[in-house]
């Protein structure tokens, strides 16, 4: 039995030692440089005030013109070619012109004009912008969240930071930006860590299976090594020693020191690829989605237009919440006006859903729901609204929790017992985002870098041992050149 464990660990270790070293090294990079994305602040900064004088059709007409039968939300934004309604359903989005309801087609020229307008809003020299590509996938646009926007136009802004932005071919919105620094660091971070080359990641099912399998085999190798490491410990006096010498001794002793971290980190990394295999995915059921954010009566939503849109609004959104139609006029990143159909505007100072409206939802959502509570900033489950200052409400319905954004009525998290457990065994173990550490970010930085460096040192000893073993297994023949 012990012989089988030794052989299994040896050859799995040889096969995965480079992968272990890569995961630990790139984990340090990823902690400081996340995968490129367009933050809400960056997106909103690129929006211009809506020209109300060009709006000639209602939101209901826009939904009909879009052809999206399951439209749940509609937004009105100002593009370089005029205001457009963007209707979004479960799987796709489409833009129509607010002037006549015609399809707001995105050509390369239209995309360039949109990019230049976006650059001007951000205070950059718009004349430097150029279209550099048009494709379904590239290295930075492979995540599934961009599926409804493909193909994407890529444009370089020509600024000192080397910024590139991506424009949706279905809505004409800027949906992603990257900088030269982000791209460079991510080649040494997320791309390697997630095994994220475009050719593999563009096929989600294949990528999921490959990375899940590799992570599982790596976990087995680590578990076998931990068992062997403990079994081979020697106690001399009050000190722990190793029966090995040289690099083997280093590998043994560093492995013992790093064992708990390595096992928990590899295990939680494997769980990052769970995707419903062991834990729930946290997705709303169709019934829950229909109750909370079902498509509103768009004729009722159109009645909201009787109350004029704010002259400084950069984005207007219509959505359904608990069977009623709402409109929100966003005038700044953290400032909005919220109106419910058939009702007066909400408090101008807040512009958010109230606890009373959340309480009205509970009767339709599920039995045994408690009164809604506001999620505290130090909540264990790390949920935040995209709108600064907006409350997040938590509805507890027995073992089932819903975290709802008070700014837009969207469900941010659905937490059943399985999903709450997943938050701890994956996120907390893998990123050390325990509330106590999140309150002391510098200490958390030091721990993450230190532990990953320890794991990297441990992996390097494995690489040396593995290389020596391979050389012994394949001796150079006499006379070979």
Helices and strands in order:
Blueprint: H1 2-32, H2 40-45, H3 59-66, E1 73-79, E2 82-88, E3 93-97, H4 108-121, E4 130-135, E5 152-156, E6 164-168, E7 174-178, H5 180-187, H6 190-193, H7 198-201, H8 204-231, E8 234-236, E9 239-241, H9 246-271, H10 286-293, H11 298-302, E10 315-321, E11 324-332, E12 335-340, H12 355-365, E13 373-374, E14 392-397, E15 400-405, E16 411-415, H13 417-431, H14 435-438, H15 441-473
Antiparallel strand pairs: 1-2, 1-10, 2-3, 4-5, 5-6, 6-7, 8-9, 10-11, 11-12, 13-14, 14-15, 15-16
Helix pairs in contact: 1-8, 1-15, 8-9, 9-13, 9-15
What does this structure look like?
It is a single chain. With 481 residues, the protein is an alpha+beta fold. Among the domains are: 40-188, no CATH class; 286-415, no CATH class. Helices cover 43% and strands 18% of the residues. The protein is built from 15 helices and 16 strands. A 6-stranded antiparallel beta sheet has the order 3-2-1-10-11-12. It has a 4-stranded antiparallel beta sheet with strand order 4-5-6-7. The chain is globular, with a radius of gyration of 27 Å.
How would you summarize this macromolecular structure in one to three sentences?
With 481 residues, the chain is an alpha+beta fold. The chain has 15 helices and 16 strands. Helix 1 packs across helix 8, helix 9 (246-271) runs antiparallel to helix 13 and helix 9 packs across helix 15 (441-473).
């Amino acid at each position: 039995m012990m012989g089988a464990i030794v052989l299994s660990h040896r050859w799995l270790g040889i096969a995965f030692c480079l992968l272990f070293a890569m995961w630990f090294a790139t984990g340090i990079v990823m902690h400081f440089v996340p995968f490129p994305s367009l933050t809400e602040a960056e997106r909103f900064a690129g929006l211009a005030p809506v020209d109300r004088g060009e709006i000639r059709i209602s939101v209901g007409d826009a939904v009909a013109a879009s052809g999206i039968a399951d439209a749940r939300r509609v937004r009105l934004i100002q593009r370089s070619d005029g205001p457009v309604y963007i209707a979004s359903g479960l799987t796709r989005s489409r833009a129509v012109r607010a002037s006549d309801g015609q399809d707001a087609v995105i050509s390369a020229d239209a995309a360039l004009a949109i990019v230049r307008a976006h650059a001007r809003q951000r205070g950059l020299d718009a004349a430097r912008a150029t279209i550099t590509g048009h494709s379904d996938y590239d290295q930075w646009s492979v995540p599934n969240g961009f599926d409804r926007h493909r193909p994407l136009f890529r444009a370089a802004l020509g600024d000192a930071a080397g910024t590139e932005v991506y424009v949706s071919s279905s809505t004409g919105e800027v949906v992603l930006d990257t900088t030269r620094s982000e791209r460079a660091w991510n080649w040494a971070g997320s791309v390697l860590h997630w095994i994220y080359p475009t050719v593999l990641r563009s096929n989600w099912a294949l990528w999921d299976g490959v990375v899940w399998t590799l992570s599982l085999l790596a976990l087995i190798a680590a578990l076998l090594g931990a068992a062997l490491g403990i079994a081979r410990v020697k106690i001399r006096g009050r000190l722990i020693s190793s029966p090995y010498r040289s690099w083997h001794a280093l590998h043994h002793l560093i492995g013992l020191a790093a064992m708990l971290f390595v096992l928990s980190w590899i295990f939680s990394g494997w769980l990052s690829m769970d995707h419903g295999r062991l834990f729930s995915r946290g997705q709303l059921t169709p019934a829950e989605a229909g109750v909370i954010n079902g498509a509103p009566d768009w004729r009722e939503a159109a009645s909201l237009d009787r109350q004029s849109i704010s002259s400084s609004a950069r984005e207007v959104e219509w959505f359904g919440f608990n069977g009623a139609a709402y409109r929100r006029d966003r005038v700044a990143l953290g400032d909005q006006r919220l109106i419910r159909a058939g009702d007066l505007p909400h408090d101008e100072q807040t512009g958010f859903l109230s606890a009373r409206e959340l309480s009205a939802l509970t009767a339709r959502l599920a039995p045994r729901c408690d009164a809604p509570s506001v999620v505290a900033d130090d909540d264990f489950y790390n949920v935040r609204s995209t709108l600064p200052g907006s409350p997040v409400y938590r509805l507890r319905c027995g073992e089932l929790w819903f975290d709802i954004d008070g700014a837009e009525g969207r469900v941010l998290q659905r937490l059943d017992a399985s999903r709450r457990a997943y938050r701890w065994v994956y996120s907390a173990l893998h990123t050390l985002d325990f509330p106590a550490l999140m309150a002391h970010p510098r200490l958390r930085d030091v721990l993450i870098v230190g532990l990953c460096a320890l794991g990297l040192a441990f992996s390097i000893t494995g690489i040396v041992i593995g290389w020596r073993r391979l050389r012994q297994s394949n001796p150079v023949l006499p006379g070979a050149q």
